[in-house]
Queue: 2 jobs
Job 1
Amino acid sequence: MYAGSKAFFYTLSRSAALKRLASRYGLATEGSFASRFIAGETIEGAIAVARRLQTEGLLVTLDHLGESVRTLEEASAATREYVRLMEVIVAAGIERNISLKLTQLGIDVDRATCVDNMRRILEPATRNGFFVRIDMENSPYTERTLEIFETLWEQDYRNIGVALQSYLRRTENDVRRMNTLGARVRLVKGAYKEPPAVAYQRKDEVNGEFVRLARILLDEGTYPAIATHDEEALQQVRAYASAKQIAHDRFEFQLLYGIRRDVQLGLAGAGYRVRVYVPFGREWFPYFMRRLGERPANLSFVLRSLIREG
């Protein structure tokens, strides 16, 4: 059931017709079904959400949604949008932390151009004290993403980190690879449809790997980000950190905007560093579908909203 629901929503996320329909209705009004998970379609809307979260004692990272661009012009446009995002963040005075995907920046079009686009973002990011997280996409991109990350690391960009997915069978080696560099890792479970040869399929296997890899990161990593809403996994990570006397400022928890605010505020209230991943932009539909695939119980919320709006 776990793998099947993810596959179903992943297929929906790739539907151009559904994407057009959702873009027309999904964020049309405040309180609509997708606005629970997406901080609006504009940079200004995302800034307002980030400000509110920070007043609640939460950290933030902003992600201008978009992926799988097909031309160099689209990749260049996405790069310019990220540079503009940083300018707006500086002017707004909020935390300087952003997340992005390499398929936004042209990895499918030309690797060298993708690296150049990352440099175009990292140069002003470095000057202005930003941290830039590279999100991980589905498994055909894993090695290419890590190779580009290492290329940038070798060029002395140290204000970067990368996400790794616990459901991939290769991830323990990747965790140790990043730990050896001293790079900051965000550990997530993984939201893409993957074959059994590449990824664990059962929920208990994915959860078990997540906790095991989180422990490796807590022991050996550089300020890891433990990203999950699973309360049992969070409890196990907290218990391990406490038993090993790992200080709260040596790692952080990360959760998604709009999901389990009670958990977010509870962790922050207990003294942990908690960062909320704040996605925004017009290209929100694929992200939204993957979130439903991770937690299909959210589908009832969507259906109720569609009925109300119809």
Job 2
Amino acid sequence: MGLFGSNIKLLRKRRGRTQDDVAVALEMKRSTLSGYENEVAQPGLEALVAFSRYFNVSIDTLVKTDLSTLAESQLSQLERGYDVFLTGSKLRVLATTVDRENEENIELVSEKAKAGYRAGFADPEFIKVLPTFQMPFLSKQKKYRSFQVSGDSMLPIPDGAWVTCEFVQNWQLIRNRHAYVVHTLDDGVVFKVVENLIRKEGKLRLHSLNPAYEPYDVHVNDVREVWKFVNYISNEMPDPDLPHQELARQVNRLRDDVEALKKGEGR
């Protein structure tokens, strides 16, 4: 198992995590992790499973493949979940469902289903139990999925709304200041306005429409899927922009007052 230590060290450093970070996440002593990385200790089956889940890389890959010999593009695909030992192919095929006419469904990922989606997004058995529907006006050549929004970070799109999105295969094509559902390793499914910093910094900057929320960065190694926003469905009417309207009224009153003063001075 000589490759295991160097592989987990490589994956950890590429993700920008310290030994302490990984040890805490896996609930083990830092000295234990150090022993694995320096190949002075051999992990048991439970530890192998834990590392496989943490890095989203199969045990076979961790113990049999020298990751240091892979090209950058291969490593990036591996870190994004495209593992040949997990999927049986060089690129992960998006798990999807079709209707009786063999046309792809739009699966619904409710707020309750998000926890399961976090782990089962690539599992056809999980995806096929999700509710589905069709939108006839959307392209049949593209893959869509609907996610339920939670919270107020993307107001005026309200809590509980359903956002339908198009699957993005090539992340280099993510457009700045457009809305996307981003499936992340740490935060699960989030709906944000995205700033694409992949070429310069290897990350995405996620912004909320609600200015009360600060933007934050996600490294591409921690991103599982990206879905581009297409439309949303809600049974709530958006709230009127009352503060803006009140400000406009105050400006109009002030303008009227200034006009009245000018007329008074001209007398």
